[in-house]
Amino acid sequence: MDMPLYCSSLAARVPHVSGDGRVSNKLTSNHVGSLFFQHQNPPKQILSLPKFDQSCSSSIMEDQKSLSVASPEPEKYYQELDVAVRAVQMACSLCQRVQDSLISKSNDQIKSKDDNSPVTVADWSVQATVSWLLSEYFGRKNLSIVAEEDVQKLSRADASELLVAVVNIVNECLAEAPRFGLKGPDKDLGTSEVLEAISHCNSSGGPTGRFWTLDPVDGTLGFVRGDQYAIALALIEDGEVVLGVLGCPNYPMRKEWLSYHHRYHRIITKLTPPTSESWDKGFVTYAMKGSGKAWMQPLLQSNKKLVWPNSARPVRVSSIDDPGLATFCEPVERANSSHSFTAGLAHTMGLRKQPLRVYSMVKYAAIARGDAEIFMKFARAGYKEKIWDHAAGVVIIQEAGGMVTDARGNPLDFSKGIYLEGLDRGVIASAGPKLHDKIISAVDASWDSSSL
Ligand SMILES: Nc1ncnc2c1ncn2[C@@H]1O[C@H](COP(=O)(O)OS(=O)(=O)O)[C@@H](OP(=O)(O)O)[C@H]1O
Ligand SMILES: [Mg+2]
Protein backbone atom coordinates (compact mmCIF):
# COMPACT_ATOMS: atom_id res chain seq x y z
CA MET A 1 0.00 0.00 0.00
CA ASP A 2 1.17 3.48 -0.80
CA MET A 3 1.83 5.10 2.57
CA PRO A 4 2.14 8.78 3.29
CA LEU A 5 5.50 10.15 2.48
CA TYR A 6 5.48 12.06 5.68
CA CYS A 7 4.71 9.09 7.85
CA SER A 8 7.29 6.76 6.40
CA SER A 9 9.89 9.45 6.15
CA LEU A 10 9.56 10.48 9.74
CA ALA A 11 9.64 6.92 10.88
CA ALA A 12 12.76 6.48 8.83
CA ARG A 13 14.54 9.54 10.00
CA VAL A 14 13.67 10.29 13.55
CA PRO A 15 16.08 12.99 14.63
CA HIS A 16 18.36 11.88 17.40
CA VAL A 17 20.17 14.20 19.78
CA SER A 18 23.67 13.04 20.51
CA GLY A 19 25.66 13.75 23.65
CA ASP A 20 26.92 17.06 22.34
CA GLY A 21 23.36 18.18 21.59
CA ARG A 22 23.68 17.92 17.81
CA VAL A 23 20.93 16.34 15.79
CA SER A 24 21.40 13.38 13.55
CA ASN A 25 18.76 11.58 11.53
CA LYS A 26 18.99 8.06 12.79
CA LEU A 27 17.29 5.29 10.89
CA THR A 28 14.84 3.79 13.38
CA SER A 29 11.67 2.48 11.84
CA ASN A 30 10.28 1.26 15.16
CA HIS A 31 11.04 4.38 17.08
CA VAL A 32 8.67 5.23 19.93
CA GLY A 33 8.01 8.79 19.01
CA SER A 34 9.87 11.26 21.18
CA LEU A 35 11.23 13.74 18.76
CA PHE A 36 14.22 15.78 19.80
CA PHE A 37 15.89 18.53 18.01
CA GLN A 38 17.86 21.56 18.78
CA HIS A 39 17.06 25.16 18.06
CA GLN A 40 19.77 27.32 16.82
CA ASN A 41 19.14 29.21 20.02
CA PRO A 42 18.44 27.71 23.39
CA PRO A 43 16.31 26.36 24.89
CA LYS A 44 16.52 22.94 23.36
CA GLN A 45 13.03 21.66 22.71
CA ILE A 46 11.71 18.25 23.42
CA LEU A 47 8.72 17.43 21.32
CA SER A 48 6.36 14.78 22.57
CA LEU A 49 5.01 13.28 19.42
CA PRO A 50 2.78 10.26 19.37
CA LYS A 51 4.05 6.85 18.48
CA PHE A 52 4.49 6.42 14.79
CA ASP A 53 2.51 3.72 13.12
CA GLN A 54 4.98 0.93 12.44
CA SER A 55 3.05 -0.19 9.41
CA CYS A 56 4.46 2.91 7.78
CA SER A 57 7.97 1.56 7.75
CA SER A 58 7.36 -0.89 4.91
CA SER A 59 7.49 1.77 2.26
CA ILE A 60 10.32 3.80 3.72
CA MET A 61 12.86 2.77 1.16
CA GLU A 62 10.55 3.27 -1.78
CA ASP A 63 9.67 6.74 -0.63
CA GLN A 64 13.27 7.58 0.05
CA LYS A 65 14.20 6.45 -3.46
CA SER A 66 11.48 8.44 -5.12
CA LEU A 67 12.45 11.43 -3.05
CA SER A 68 16.08 11.33 -4.00
CA VAL A 69 15.13 11.33 -7.66
CA ALA A 70 12.67 14.20 -7.33
CA SER A 71 14.66 16.52 -5.12
CA PRO A 72 18.09 16.60 -3.53
CA GLU A 73 17.06 16.96 0.10
CA PRO A 74 13.36 17.25 0.75
CA GLU A 75 13.74 15.42 4.07
CA LYS A 76 15.14 18.69 5.33
CA TYR A 77 11.59 19.81 6.06
CA TYR A 78 10.09 16.78 7.81
CA GLN A 79 10.04 18.38 11.23
CA GLU A 80 8.47 21.54 9.89
CA LEU A 81 5.82 19.54 8.06
CA ASP A 82 5.07 17.49 11.14
CA VAL A 83 4.46 20.51 13.34
CA ALA A 84 2.67 22.46 10.59
CA VAL A 85 0.13 19.71 9.86
CA ARG A 86 -0.68 19.26 13.54
CA ALA A 87 -0.92 23.02 14.07
CA VAL A 88 -3.31 23.37 11.13
CA GLN A 89 -5.40 20.48 12.47
CA MET A 90 -5.64 22.44 15.74
CA ALA A 91 -6.53 25.63 13.87
CA CYS A 92 -9.31 23.80 12.00
CA SER A 93 -10.76 22.64 15.27
CA LEU A 94 -10.59 26.19 16.63
CA CYS A 95 -12.30 27.64 13.56
CA GLN A 96 -15.03 25.01 13.58
CA ARG A 97 -15.92 25.96 17.12
CA VAL A 98 -15.99 29.68 16.32
CA GLN A 99 -17.96 29.16 13.09
CA ASP A 100 -20.49 26.92 14.86
CA SER A 101 -21.04 29.57 17.49
CA LEU A 102 -21.25 32.22 14.80
CA ILE A 103 -24.04 30.47 12.93
CA SER A 104 -25.92 29.30 15.99
CA LYS A 105 -28.93 31.39 16.92
CA SER A 106 -27.72 31.90 20.44
CA ASN A 107 -24.94 34.08 19.14
CA ASP A 108 -27.08 36.93 17.83
CA GLN A 109 -25.60 39.13 20.51
CA ILE A 110 -22.09 39.03 19.12
CA LYS A 111 -23.32 39.47 15.57
CA SER A 112 -25.42 42.50 16.30
CA LYS A 113 -22.57 44.27 18.03
CA ASP A 114 -20.13 43.94 15.22
CA ASP A 115 -20.67 41.68 12.26
CA ASN A 116 -16.97 41.23 11.84
CA SER A 117 -16.03 40.36 15.37
CA PRO A 118 -16.44 36.57 15.23
CA VAL A 119 -14.34 36.21 12.13
CA THR A 120 -11.68 38.50 13.46
CA VAL A 121 -11.67 36.52 16.69
CA ALA A 122 -10.99 33.40 14.63
CA ASP A 123 -8.32 35.21 12.59
CA TRP A 124 -6.41 36.46 15.60
CA SER A 125 -6.85 33.27 17.58
CA VAL A 126 -5.51 31.07 14.79
CA GLN A 127 -2.64 33.45 14.19
CA ALA A 128 -1.72 33.51 17.89
CA THR A 129 -2.00 29.73 18.22
CA VAL A 130 0.03 28.85 15.13
CA SER A 131 2.63 31.51 15.86
CA TRP A 132 3.00 30.31 19.46
CA LEU A 133 3.39 26.68 18.37
CA LEU A 134 5.92 27.46 15.65
CA SER A 135 7.96 29.56 17.98
CA GLU A 136 7.94 26.85 20.66
CA TYR A 137 9.15 24.27 18.19
CA PHE A 138 11.53 26.29 16.05
CA GLY A 139 12.63 29.03 18.43
CA ARG A 140 11.24 32.52 18.44
CA LYS A 141 14.45 34.27 17.49
CA ASN A 142 14.82 32.52 14.17
CA LEU A 143 11.16 32.40 13.36
CA SER A 144 9.89 34.66 10.64
CA ILE A 145 6.17 34.68 9.80
CA VAL A 146 4.27 36.71 7.24
CA ALA A 147 0.61 36.70 8.21
CA GLU A 148 -2.53 38.59 7.45
CA GLU A 149 -3.49 40.06 10.80
CA ASP A 150 -1.76 42.82 12.70
CA VAL A 151 -2.27 43.58 16.33
CA GLN A 152 -3.19 47.24 16.20
CA LYS A 153 -6.95 46.98 16.37
CA LEU A 154 -6.81 44.28 19.01
CA SER A 155 -4.59 46.38 21.26
CA ARG A 156 -6.96 49.34 21.34
CA ALA A 157 -8.89 50.14 24.51
CA ASP A 158 -12.24 49.62 22.78
CA ALA A 159 -11.23 46.09 21.74
CA SER A 160 -10.87 44.74 25.24
CA GLU A 161 -13.80 42.32 24.86
CA LEU A 162 -12.37 40.97 21.64
CA LEU A 163 -9.00 40.54 23.27
CA VAL A 164 -10.48 38.59 26.18
CA ALA A 165 -12.33 36.36 23.70
CA VAL A 166 -9.14 35.76 21.70
CA VAL A 167 -7.07 34.94 24.79
CA ASN A 168 -9.72 32.46 25.98
CA ILE A 169 -10.03 30.77 22.61
CA VAL A 170 -6.25 30.49 22.22
CA ASN A 171 -5.93 28.92 25.66
CA GLU A 172 -8.79 26.52 25.00
CA CYS A 173 -7.16 25.49 21.77
CA LEU A 174 -3.64 25.12 23.18
CA ALA A 175 -4.97 23.07 26.10
CA GLU A 176 -5.87 20.48 23.47
CA ALA A 177 -2.35 20.39 21.97
CA PRO A 178 -1.49 16.95 23.44
CA ARG A 179 -4.46 15.42 21.61
CA PHE A 180 -2.81 16.60 18.40
CA GLY A 181 0.60 15.31 19.46
CA LEU A 182 2.01 18.72 20.31
CA LYS A 183 3.11 20.26 23.56
CA GLY A 184 1.01 23.15 24.83
CA PRO A 185 2.02 25.77 27.39
CA ASP A 186 2.48 24.71 31.02
CA LYS A 187 -0.03 27.33 32.07
CA ASP A 188 -2.52 29.52 30.24
CA LEU A 189 -1.02 32.27 28.10
CA GLY A 190 -1.57 35.80 29.36
CA THR A 191 -2.78 38.72 27.28
CA SER A 192 0.69 40.00 26.54
CA GLU A 193 1.89 36.58 25.38
CA VAL A 194 -1.06 36.27 23.01
CA LEU A 195 -0.46 39.77 21.64
CA GLU A 196 3.22 38.99 21.29
CA ALA A 197 2.45 35.80 19.35
CA ILE A 198 0.20 37.71 16.95
CA SER A 199 2.56 40.60 16.46
CA HIS A 200 5.49 38.28 15.90
CA CYS A 201 3.99 37.57 12.47
CA ASN A 202 5.31 40.84 11.10
CA SER A 203 7.87 39.61 8.61
CA SER A 204 7.67 41.06 5.15
CA GLY A 205 9.15 38.04 3.39
CA GLY A 206 11.71 38.57 0.66
CA PRO A 207 14.14 36.70 -1.58
CA THR A 208 16.46 35.08 0.96
CA GLY A 209 16.19 32.96 4.06
CA ARG A 210 13.27 31.12 5.49
CA PHE A 211 9.87 32.39 6.47
CA TRP A 212 6.36 31.04 7.00
CA THR A 213 3.21 32.51 5.48
CA LEU A 214 -0.08 32.16 7.27
CA ASP A 215 -3.59 33.06 6.24
CA PRO A 216 -5.40 32.27 9.48
CA VAL A 217 -8.88 32.36 7.92
CA ASP A 218 -8.82 32.58 4.15
CA GLY A 219 -12.23 33.24 2.65
CA THR A 220 -13.54 35.56 5.32
CA LEU A 221 -16.93 35.83 3.65
CA GLY A 222 -17.30 32.08 3.37
CA PHE A 223 -16.45 31.75 7.05
CA VAL A 224 -19.03 34.32 8.13
CA ARG A 225 -21.68 32.74 5.91
CA GLY A 226 -21.11 29.26 7.33
CA ASP A 227 -19.57 28.17 4.04
CA GLN A 228 -16.11 27.20 2.78
CA TYR A 229 -12.91 28.73 4.15
CA ALA A 230 -9.34 27.58 4.60
CA ILE A 231 -6.40 27.84 6.96
CA ALA A 232 -3.23 28.17 4.91
CA LEU A 233 0.30 27.70 6.20
CA ALA A 234 3.37 27.52 3.98
CA LEU A 235 7.12 27.59 4.39
CA ILE A 236 9.14 29.62 1.91
CA GLU A 237 12.89 29.30 1.58
CA ASP A 238 14.96 31.52 -0.67
CA GLY A 239 11.84 32.59 -2.51
CA GLU A 240 10.53 29.05 -3.15
CA VAL A 241 7.54 27.50 -1.44
CA VAL A 242 8.91 24.31 0.10
CA LEU A 243 5.94 23.20 2.22
CA GLY A 244 2.24 23.81 2.00
CA VAL A 245 -0.47 22.85 4.46
CA LEU A 246 -4.10 23.70 3.81
CA GLY A 247 -6.91 23.06 6.27
CA CYS A 248 -10.37 22.91 4.67
CA PRO A 249 -12.75 22.30 7.57
CA ASN A 250 -15.98 22.36 5.55
CA TYR A 251 -14.92 20.44 2.48
CA PRO A 252 -17.82 18.06 1.92
CA MET A 253 -17.75 14.32 1.76
CA ARG A 254 -19.03 14.32 -1.81
CA LYS A 255 -17.59 16.70 -4.35
CA GLU A 256 -21.03 17.52 -5.80
CA TRP A 257 -21.87 19.13 -2.49
CA LEU A 258 -19.14 21.72 -3.01
CA SER A 259 -21.45 23.61 -5.30
CA TYR A 260 -24.43 23.49 -2.94
CA HIS A 261 -25.37 26.49 -0.91
CA HIS A 262 -24.04 26.19 2.63
CA ARG A 263 -27.55 25.85 4.05
CA TYR A 264 -28.03 22.64 2.03
CA HIS A 265 -24.72 21.38 3.35
CA ARG A 266 -25.96 21.61 6.86
CA ILE A 267 -29.25 19.94 6.04
CA ILE A 268 -27.52 17.13 4.14
CA THR A 269 -25.04 16.61 6.95
CA LYS A 270 -27.94 16.23 9.34
CA LEU A 271 -29.77 13.84 7.02
CA THR A 272 -26.70 11.67 6.44
CA PRO A 273 -24.84 11.72 9.75
CA PRO A 274 -21.39 10.20 9.61
CA THR A 275 -20.75 6.86 11.25
CA SER A 276 -18.19 6.97 14.01
CA GLU A 277 -15.30 6.04 11.72
CA SER A 278 -16.39 7.60 8.45
CA TRP A 279 -15.17 10.89 7.08
CA ASP A 280 -17.79 13.55 7.63
CA LYS A 281 -16.31 16.71 6.17
CA GLY A 282 -13.08 18.57 6.24
CA PHE A 283 -9.45 17.62 5.81
CA VAL A 284 -5.92 18.90 5.96
CA THR A 285 -3.99 18.56 2.71
CA TYR A 286 -0.23 19.02 2.50
CA ALA A 287 2.82 18.60 0.30
CA MET A 288 6.55 19.01 0.42
CA LYS A 289 8.27 20.45 -2.62
CA GLY A 290 10.12 17.90 -4.70
CA SER A 291 8.41 14.87 -3.16
CA GLY A 292 6.08 14.32 -6.10
CA LYS A 293 3.26 13.58 -3.70
CA ALA A 294 0.50 15.40 -1.90
CA TRP A 295 -1.58 14.05 0.94
CA MET A 296 -4.80 14.62 2.77
CA GLN A 297 -5.86 13.48 6.18
CA PRO A 298 -9.34 13.88 7.69
CA LEU A 299 -9.85 16.35 10.48
CA LEU A 300 -9.31 14.87 13.88
CA GLN A 301 -12.61 13.91 15.46
CA SER A 302 -13.32 15.68 18.72
CA ASN A 303 -12.79 12.73 21.05
CA LYS A 304 -9.78 11.25 19.22
CA LYS A 305 -6.02 11.54 19.52
CA LEU A 306 -4.00 12.19 16.41
CA VAL A 307 -2.05 9.03 15.64
CA TRP A 308 0.08 9.42 12.60
CA PRO A 309 -0.65 8.99 9.70
CA ASN A 310 -4.20 9.76 10.79
CA SER A 311 -5.69 7.90 7.81
CA ALA A 312 -3.77 10.07 5.37
CA ARG A 313 -4.06 9.20 1.72
CA PRO A 314 -2.43 10.56 -1.39
CA VAL A 315 -4.24 13.08 -3.55
CA ARG A 316 -3.73 13.44 -7.26
CA VAL A 317 -5.04 15.87 -9.85
CA SER A 318 -7.71 14.74 -12.31
CA SER A 319 -6.66 12.99 -15.50
CA ILE A 320 -9.28 14.86 -17.52
CA ASP A 321 -7.69 16.98 -20.22
CA ASP A 322 -10.70 17.45 -22.46
CA PRO A 323 -12.11 20.94 -21.81
CA GLY A 324 -15.58 19.63 -22.61
CA LEU A 325 -15.39 17.41 -19.52
CA ALA A 326 -13.47 19.78 -17.27
CA THR A 327 -14.83 21.77 -14.35
CA PHE A 328 -13.39 25.20 -13.64
CA CYS A 329 -13.58 26.95 -10.32
CA GLU A 330 -13.33 30.62 -9.52
CA PRO A 331 -13.91 33.04 -6.62
CA VAL A 332 -17.45 33.47 -5.39
CA GLU A 333 -17.14 37.23 -5.17
CA ARG A 334 -17.42 39.12 -8.44
CA ALA A 335 -15.34 41.85 -6.84
CA ASN A 336 -12.42 39.41 -6.56
CA SER A 337 -12.43 38.07 -10.09
CA SER A 338 -14.21 38.90 -13.33
CA HIS A 339 -16.91 36.30 -13.87
CA SER A 340 -17.70 37.70 -17.30
CA PHE A 341 -14.09 37.33 -18.49
CA THR A 342 -13.89 33.72 -17.30
CA ALA A 343 -17.27 33.00 -18.93
CA GLY A 344 -15.80 34.23 -22.22
CA LEU A 345 -12.70 32.06 -21.76
CA ALA A 346 -14.86 29.07 -20.90
CA HIS A 347 -16.81 29.57 -24.11
CA THR A 348 -13.63 29.93 -26.20
CA MET A 349 -12.10 26.82 -24.68
CA GLY A 350 -15.23 24.71 -24.95
CA LEU A 351 -15.73 24.32 -21.20
CA ARG A 352 -19.31 23.15 -20.95
CA LYS A 353 -19.82 22.70 -17.22
CA GLN A 354 -21.10 25.41 -14.92
CA PRO A 355 -18.31 27.18 -12.99
CA LEU A 356 -17.76 25.96 -9.47
CA ARG A 357 -17.72 29.05 -7.26
CA VAL A 358 -16.10 28.28 -3.95
CA TYR A 359 -14.72 30.63 -1.32
CA SER A 360 -11.03 30.70 -0.48
CA MET A 361 -8.07 28.46 -1.22
CA VAL A 362 -10.40 25.48 -0.97
CA LYS A 363 -10.35 25.90 -4.77
CA TYR A 364 -6.69 24.86 -4.79
CA ALA A 365 -7.58 21.80 -2.71
CA ALA A 366 -10.36 20.92 -5.15
CA ILE A 367 -7.86 20.88 -8.03
CA ALA A 368 -5.28 18.89 -6.06
CA ARG A 369 -7.91 16.28 -5.15
CA GLY A 370 -9.13 15.98 -8.72
CA ASP A 371 -12.57 17.38 -7.94
CA ALA A 372 -12.10 20.15 -10.52
CA GLU A 373 -9.58 20.66 -13.31
CA ILE A 374 -9.12 24.42 -13.61
CA PHE A 375 -8.93 27.44 -11.31
CA MET A 376 -8.93 30.94 -12.75
CA LYS A 377 -8.78 34.28 -10.95
CA PHE A 378 -8.71 37.64 -12.70
CA ALA A 379 -8.73 40.42 -10.15
CA ARG A 380 -9.44 43.99 -11.13
CA ALA A 381 -6.52 46.03 -12.47
CA GLY A 382 -4.37 47.34 -9.65
CA TYR A 383 -5.23 44.61 -7.12
CA LYS A 384 -2.08 42.95 -5.84
CA GLU A 385 -2.38 39.31 -4.83
CA LYS A 386 -0.87 38.46 -1.45
CA ILE A 387 1.54 35.56 -1.01
CA TRP A 388 -0.43 33.99 1.86
CA ASP A 389 -3.48 33.62 -0.41
CA HIS A 390 -1.59 31.28 -2.76
CA ALA A 391 1.63 29.81 -1.31
CA ALA A 392 0.24 26.64 0.32
CA GLY A 393 -2.12 25.88 -2.56
CA VAL A 394 0.56 26.25 -5.22
CA VAL A 395 2.95 23.63 -3.85
CA ILE A 396 0.11 21.22 -3.07
CA ILE A 397 -1.23 21.38 -6.62
CA GLN A 398 2.24 21.08 -8.13
CA GLU A 399 3.13 18.03 -6.06
CA ALA A 400 -0.28 16.50 -6.83
CA GLY A 401 0.69 16.68 -10.50
CA GLY A 402 -0.90 19.97 -11.56
CA MET A 403 0.35 23.38 -12.65
CA VAL A 404 0.02 26.92 -11.31
CA THR A 405 1.21 30.02 -13.14
CA ASP A 406 0.11 33.53 -13.88
CA ALA A 407 -2.07 33.98 -16.95
CA ARG A 408 0.99 34.41 -19.18
CA GLY A 409 2.40 31.09 -18.05
CA ASN A 410 5.03 32.48 -15.67
CA PRO A 411 5.57 30.95 -12.24
CA LEU A 412 4.22 32.90 -9.26
CA ASP A 413 7.04 34.79 -7.58
CA PHE A 414 7.07 34.45 -3.79
CA SER A 415 10.39 36.25 -3.37
CA LYS A 416 9.31 39.87 -3.62
CA GLY A 417 7.76 40.55 -0.23
CA ILE A 418 4.14 40.21 0.77
CA TYR A 419 2.74 40.63 -2.75
CA LEU A 420 3.01 38.43 -5.81
CA GLU A 421 4.81 41.22 -7.64
CA GLY A 422 4.93 40.91 -11.38
CA LEU A 423 1.86 38.69 -11.54
CA ASP A 424 0.61 39.10 -15.08
CA ARG A 425 -3.12 39.27 -15.75
CA GLY A 426 -4.32 36.62 -13.33
CA VAL A 427 -3.75 33.27 -11.66
CA ILE A 428 -4.31 29.96 -13.44
CA ALA A 429 -4.14 26.49 -11.92
CA SER A 430 -4.88 23.34 -13.80
CA ALA A 431 -4.63 19.58 -13.76
CA GLY A 432 -1.99 19.50 -16.47
CA PRO A 433 -0.18 21.09 -19.43
CA LYS A 434 -2.81 20.46 -22.10
CA LEU A 435 -5.54 22.35 -20.27
CA HIS A 436 -3.05 24.94 -19.07
CA ASP A 437 -1.85 25.81 -22.57
CA LYS A 438 -5.41 26.11 -23.77
CA ILE A 439 -6.31 28.57 -21.02
CA ILE A 440 -3.27 30.71 -21.66
CA SER A 441 -3.96 30.79 -25.39
CA ALA A 442 -7.59 31.74 -24.71
CA VAL A 443 -6.44 34.55 -22.40
CA ASP A 444 -3.99 35.78 -25.03
CA ALA A 445 -6.70 35.83 -27.64
CA SER A 446 -9.20 37.84 -25.61
CA TRP A 447 -7.13 39.99 -23.26
CA ASP A 448 -6.89 43.08 -25.42
CA SER A 449 -10.61 43.27 -26.01
CA SER A 450 -11.41 42.75 -22.31
CA SER A 451 -11.97 45.55 -19.86
CA LEU A 452 -9.39 44.14 -17.43
N1 LIG B 1 -10.68 43.00 -4.70
C1 LIG B 1 -10.08 41.84 -4.57
N2 LIG B 1 -9.66 41.18 -5.66
C2 LIG B 1 -9.07 39.99 -5.55
N3 LIG B 1 -8.86 39.34 -4.39
C3 LIG B 1 -9.24 39.94 -3.27
C4 LIG B 1 -9.87 41.21 -3.29
N4 LIG B 1 -10.15 41.55 -2.03
C5 LIG B 1 -9.69 40.55 -1.25
N5 LIG B 1 -9.15 39.59 -2.00
C6 LIG B 1 -8.47 38.37 -1.58
O1 LIG B 1 -9.18 37.20 -1.99
C7 LIG B 1 -9.24 36.29 -0.91
C8 LIG B 1 -10.48 35.43 -1.01
O2 LIG B 1 -10.33 34.43 -1.93
P1 LIG B 1 -10.90 34.45 -3.41
O3 LIG B 1 -10.21 35.48 -4.20
O4 LIG B 1 -10.78 33.08 -3.92
O5 LIG B 1 -12.41 34.95 -3.31
S1 LIG B 1 -13.74 34.31 -2.76
O6 LIG B 1 -13.57 34.10 -1.34
O7 LIG B 1 -14.02 33.05 -3.45
O8 LIG B 1 -14.79 35.26 -3.11
C9 LIG B 1 -9.24 37.15 0.29
O9 LIG B 1 -8.71 36.46 1.38
P2 LIG B 1 -9.29 36.72 2.86
O10 LIG B 1 -9.16 38.18 3.12
O11 LIG B 1 -8.35 35.89 3.70
O12 LIG B 1 -10.68 36.23 2.87
C10 LIG B 1 -8.39 38.35 -0.08
O13 LIG B 1 -7.05 38.22 0.28
MG1 LIG C 1 -6.94 35.18 2.25
TrEMBL record:
Keyword annotations of the record: Hydrolase, Magnesium, Metal-binding
Catalytic activity: adenosine 3',5'-bisphosphate + H2O = AMP + phosphate; 3'-phosphoadenylyl sulfate + H2O = adenosine 5'-phosphosulfate + phosphate
This enzyme's EC code(s): 3.1.3.7
Any GO molecular function: metal ion binding
SUPFAM superfamilies named among the record's database cross-references: Carbohydrate phosphatase
Binding-site residues, Mg(2+): 148, 215, 218, 389
Cofactor(s) named in the record: Mg(2+)
Pfam family name, one: Inositol_P
Gene3D superfamilies, alphabetized: 3.40.190.80, Fructose-1,6-Bisphosphatase, subunit A, domain 1
UniProt cross-references to CDD domains, sorted A to Z: PAP_phosphatase
GO biological process: phosphatidylinositol phosphate biosynthetic process; sulfur compound metabolic process
Keyword Transcription: no
Top-level EC class: hydrolase
Family, as annotated: Belongs to the inositol monophosphatase superfamily.
Protein name: 3'(2'),5'-bisphosphate nucleotidase
Biological source species: Juglans regia
